[in-house]
Every structure is written in C-alpha cells, then in structure tokens.
C-alpha cells in the first residue's frame, strides 16, 4: 500500500447524527464525554484529518486568512514547512479558506490539502504561518494523489479521518477508507437537516452499498458501543 492506512473515527447517535453540540447534557457526563478522545489515543495514528467546515467550527473559529502577494514565485505542488514534525493535523481545504493562527494544533503540525483552484496569495499565507501544504487536483482535491504524497513525502502511515460527513463520504466513495471506528451513544437525535457519519452526493443520486467486515465490538459506559469494521 503506497498510501496511509485510513481509519474513520467518529461518534454518533443511534440514528447516525454527528453534530455533538446538540448533546451537551449527555456529554457533560465524564464517562461519555471522554470516550471519543480515549479511543483517538488508543488507535495510535500519526495524523488526524478533518474537512474545512469541521476545522472552521472547532479550531479556526471563522477567522479569515491574511492575503498578500508574494515577491517570490510560489510553489504550487508540495511545501514541507517542518521536517522534524512527528504528528500531524491534516486539513482538506479545497479552495484555501481557513484562517490559521498557528502552524499546529496541540503540537500536531498542520498540513493543508488543496486543489489547483487555490490562490498564490493563500499559499503565501500558509508559508508565512509555517504550515505545510499539498496542491493536487484541478477543481477538487485529488485524494488518491494527495494521500500518496502524505505517505511518501511526509512519512505518514496511519490517519484518523474525523469528519465531517461529506469528507468521510468522499473518501469512502474514492475507495480509500480501510476501517471504521464508530462510538454509538445511546441517544436518538431528531434535529432536522444535520449531518450523519457518511454523506455523499453522486451524479446519479444513487450509490452502491457494500458489506463491511466486523472486526470488534465493545460495550462501553452507560450503554454506548464501540463498533470496529474493516471495509475490505
């Protein structure tokens, strides 16, 4: 395999909802509130990955990038800002929108995955912040090529894919997902128009399904479950 091993690690309601801000009264319980991060650590990956929307909500908090022209030519393929980094936070930010304040999240070096639609000014912004980047794909990120670069150029062997639902769905549909780690809380979330673990819209509006292979299941605190599946 010439790409990282990818595990989708998520927490959901029984009906597959993932917007945890609706579950404050449940997650305030220490037993349930810590489950997700506990398993994040146990899965022992070099990197974790999220899409732009999730990162904007949880980490950059809507900040806008400071865009200025560079006086030098900008590299539009691969830029490695920190050769000593051993752990990574990877952003799928197709057009370059996230307004990063730092080059790391809790010590994990940030790598931004972008399409060729990104501007030179945004790439210059990333370089000024000390953030690594990969430019791959004309209008959308070429996921297969970008994962290959993460493996060969950054030495990343395992990634935890942690949402949102559209990013999870896109990576699954691209045939790049190896495993699912899903914590199911004993709750039903009837909030309308909120995302689920996997979201994807194909041109035909219909997607084929496949059986997953059950690897392990554990009963957790207060009736929660951990489901671990292989995709192939």
Layout of secondary structure:
Elements: E1 5-12, H1 24-27, H2 30-33, H3 35-42, E2 47-51, H4 52-60, E3 78-79, E4 88-92, E5 104-105, E6 108-114, H5 120-129, E7 132-135, H6 143-152, E8 158-161, H7 165-173, E9 179-184, E10 213-219, E11 225-230
Parallel strand pairs: 1-8, 1-9, 2-4, 2-8, 4-6, 6-7
Antiparallel strand pairs: 3-7, 5-6, 9-11, 10-11
What does this molecule look like?
With 232 residues, the chain is of the alpha/beta class. The protein folds into 2 domains: 1-46 and 160-231, Dihydrofolate Reductase, subunit A, CATH 3.40.430.10; 49-156, Dihydrofolate Reductase, subunit A (3-Layer(aba) Sandwich). It is built from 7 helices and 11 strands. Strands 1, 2, 3, 4, 5, 6, 7, 8, 9, 10 and 11 form an 11-stranded mixed sheet that branches. The longest helix has 10 residues, at 120-129.
Key words describing this protein structure:
globular, 2 domains, Dihydrofolate Reductase, subunit A
What distance separates the N and C termini? Answer: 13 Å
CATH topology of the largest domain: Dihydrofolate Reductase, subunit A
The CATH homologous superfamily of the largest domain is termed: Dihydrofolate Reductase, subunit A
Domain module count: 2
Compact overview of the structure:
The chain has 232 residues and is α/β, with parallel strands linked by helices. It contains seven helices and eleven strands. Strands 1, 2, 3, 4, 5, 6, 7, 8, 9, 10 and 11 form an eleven-stranded mixed β-sheet that branches.
